[in-house]
Amino acid sequence: MRLSRFAKNPLITGTLLMTAAGILSRIIGFFYRIFLSRTIGAEALGIYQLIGPVFTICIALTSSSIQTAISKFVGDMIGQCSDSACGEKRARSYLKLGLLLSTVLASITALFVYRNAGWISVRFLGEARCAPLLVLLSYALIPCCIHACINGYYYGKKRAGIPSFCQLVEQIVRVGSVWIFYQVLVEKDLPLTAEHAVLGLVLSEFAGLFVGAAALSLEKKLPKNTCRNSTPEYRYMMRMFLAMVIPLTLNRVLLAASSSVENLLIPQKLQVFGYSAADSLRIYGILTGMTMSVVLFPGVLTNSFSVLLLPAISEAHGQNNERGISNAIKKAVLYGLLLGFLFTVIFLFSGNWIGNHLFHNALSGAFIRRLSWLCPLMYVTSLLGSIIHGLGNARQMLYINLLACLIRIGMVWFLVPVCGIGAYLWGILLSYVFTTIACMFSLRSYFYSADQKG
Hints:
Radius of gyration: 23 Å
Low-confidence stretches: none
Mean pLDDT: 83
Shape: globular
Number of strands: 0
Oligomer: single chain
Largest sheet: none
Structural class: mainly alpha
Number of helices: 20
Distance between the termini: 33 Å
Helix content: over 70%
């Protein structure tokens, strides 16, 4: 009986689906990074990684907050309306609203990136060879935004299976297409380049669009006499939608911009330290394209816990259940520390083997061992951040993340030119120490109040 109730809970089953899809995608992506490191080389991988901050800012500007807003309002409409058909009608209205807004923003942004790829590469990225990659990347923005909105619609309906399947299809198409390019190029005695990797990314976004659009086309058609929204109601929906999207977009763009500045400064400051441009890109590619893909890999496990924590904390907060919140915080810290120390031990003992045998790069192994101490802090802050969001303190979490980012930027700006890449590794550690302490401090009242009432 309990098992059947468990299986019918859309939150739990959705989280399990997302976790399974996330693990499979991470595994595929992990071996994909190994494949790229062996075929295009560390320097080309560094150039490929350089366009990541641009893509992150574009997504933050055009779709990520809109997807969240669609998910929220679709869930509200489905839950609030007693008439299921009327609720579905209004939910689809929010989807159409989000699609319209996201597509317009994506079109403008894609056109800007396409026309100014050279300027962005030289002035912003500091690497002229990124220009053709950005031109290709501009084609991915519109399909990426459209299927992100569709995913938001299904998240709002607690149907995580479709977005999870979409994620897997994207990853398979991305890796599979680049592998096919490689096979064809080998026969012609031509090298695989970073441009082919970006083209694989573009194809994967179109695959995600196809899956999302196919799922929507199979949705049940609503009766023609379903409740119609009047013009004032549409205006009200627009105001409510924009009231959530605008501040959320500003927050995410600000965070994405700060993170982008951090990543773009690394190769530039390594050159000031004394490395050549090629060596700076090689080290940057090893750190971001190889090392971080390993260190961040176990994070998919805490992501599933975070998905469960946020609505649970939100519900407990609405019921003034401080003891429940306090217990959730303590369990989050305990589970995060246990999982983190487990992977710290694993990476400490296997880091050199991973670097030498999987990436064929000894420096990546050294980086993995040094960054293994991040694992407990990363997993704890991920879970505590979800709790803070569940309590409705998104602005507080924004400030914490921004200050942590400023710590890393400060280390890159002032110490990397003097001490080299080791200063940045220390900066990452210090930023996570700060984030953990700040999150615990912001939640301190729940420990004290629960202890006093106990």
